[in-house]
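User: Teach me something about this protein's shape.
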Amino acid sequence: MQGQTKTFTKQAAKELRKTMTEAEQRLWHRLRGQQLDVKFRRQHPFESYVLDFVCIERRLVIEVDGSQHADSQRDEQRTEKLNQAGFMVLRFWNNEVLNETDAVVQAIWNALNPSPPQPSP
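Assistant: First, the predicted structure itself:
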């Protein structure tokens, strides 16, 4: 069944919530409590993955990546699988979240609230 979560993934998610990176903590501070008018979950298990942040209602996944993710084919496969499951995935680097927090939050807001198409002049 799609979305079925393995027990080890649930345990990993619980541990990851306790050991969030500085960038994840900073972003969580801005996402929690429906500050963007939607509910986000952090370190949420999905199939064999643990998603950094997810808004189930809007089918939006946010991943905060460090240098270990550079040129990661596994991340591409994960994104493809999440897209197939109906999720949009936004990825940000740790340094983006730490140094450009407002811009990252604005990008998330824009993804949650896409502008309607403008008519041609």
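Now, about its shape. The chain has one domain: 7-112. The longest strand covers residues 49-55. If you'd like, I can walk through any region in more detail.
User: That's plenty for now, thanks!
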